[in-house]
Amino acid sequence: MSAEQSDRLSAPPPELVRSLVEGPSAVAAVEWHDELDSTNAEAARRAAAGAPEILVVGAEHQSAGRGRLDRTWVAPPRRSLTFSMLLRPPVGPESLPLLPLLAGMALAEVAGGYCRDVEVGLKWPNDLLIGGGKAAGVLVEAVPGAVIVGIGLNIDWRGVERAEELAGAISLAEATDLPVNRWRILAALLGVFSQRYELFKDLPAAFLDGYRDRSLTIGRPVRVELLGGAELQGEATGIAATGALEVRDSAGVTHRVSAGDVHHLRPA
C-alpha cells in the first residue's frame, strides 16, 4: 500500500500500530474510532476501567470535541489527527502543569521536521504556530488516577472551507504546499512524545530549556486574559520551572501566569 493510499484510511494501518506497540515507544495500545463524543472523554472512561498508559484513543470525528478554556474543537474528518493519550505519571501534583508544555514541545519538534522553510514555534502554553497560524492545540485533563492529554493537529486542510473561528488556522500541508501522510506524523509524534515522557517521569522540568528555545511568546508584548475576567498586559520574559508564563507589566512587576489566554501583540 502506498503512502497516499494509507493516508485515506480511517484508522492507522495495522503495521504502524504493531510497530508502536511492539517497538521502542512507550505506547501500550491504540484504539481508533469513526466517531466519538470526545477522545478525552473516552480515554477518561478507559482510565476508570483500568487501562494502562500509554493508551492512545483517536477518532475521525468528535461530536463534542473540546479545546482549552471550554472552547469547541472542530476539525474536518480525515484531514487532521485528533487523539488522546492516557497517562499515569509517577510525579507530584506540582509537576502536572508541565504536561501541556511537554506535549506542545513534541508537536513543535515533529512539525519543525516537515516545515523547514517557515517559522514553527509555540505560543504559551501549547499552541503550535506555523507561519503565524495555529496548527495544533492541546487539552490536558486530570481524572482520578490518570491524566489525559488530548491533541488536535491539522494535517491537510487544502481546499477545505472553514468557519470564521478557524480563519486563522493552518495545516502542515498548507504550510509546506506538499502532501503530508498523517499516519507517519502520528508515528513520529507518539515516538517523540514517548521519549520525552520517559525522561519527564524522572526529571519533569528537563525539557523546559528546549521549550524556551521554541517559544514564540518569550520576548513578545502580550495581553493575557486571566481566569475570572481580569487582564494582564506586558512583556513575556520567561517560563518558570513550574511552566508558568512570566509577564513583566509597565510598572516593572513580574507576574507568573499559570492559566489564561495569551494574545501576542505587535511591538510598540
Order of helices and strands: HHEHEEHEEEEHHHEEEEE
- N- to C-terminal separation? 53 Å
Q: Major sheet, described briefly?
A: 7 strands, mixed
Average per-residue pLDDT, rounded, comes to: 91
Number of strands: 12
Q: How much helix, percentage-wise, in residues?
A: 25-40%
Structural class: alpha+beta
Q: Report the sheet-strand fraction.
A: 25-35%
Question: What are the SSEs and their pairings?
Answer:
Elements: H1 3-7, H2 14-22, E1 29-36, H3 39-48, E2 55-62, E3 80-87, H4 99-114, E4 120-123, E5 127-130, E6 133-143, E7 146-154, H5 172-176, H6 182-202, H7 208-214, E8 221-226, E9 231-239, E10 245-248, E11 254-257, E12 260-264
Parallel strand pairs: 1-2
Antiparallel strand pairs: 2-3, 3-7, 4-5, 5-6, 6-7, 8-9, 8-12, 9-10, 10-11
Textual characterization of the structure:
It is a single chain. This protein has 268 residues and is α+β, with helices and mostly antiparallel strands. It has two domains: 3-211, Bira Bifunctional Protein, Domain 2 (BirA Bifunctional Protein, domain 2, 2-Layer Sandwich), CATH 3.30.930; 217-264, SH3 type barrels, CATH 2.30.30.100. The chain contains seven helices and twelve strands. The strands form two sheets. A seven-stranded mixed beta sheet has the order 1-2-3-7-6-5-4, with helices on both faces. A hairpin with a 5-residue loop joins strand 10 and strand 11. Helix 4 crosses helix 6 (182-202) and helix 4 (99-114) crosses helix 7 (208-214). The protein starts with a helix and ends with a strand. Residues 1-6 have low confidence and may be disordered.
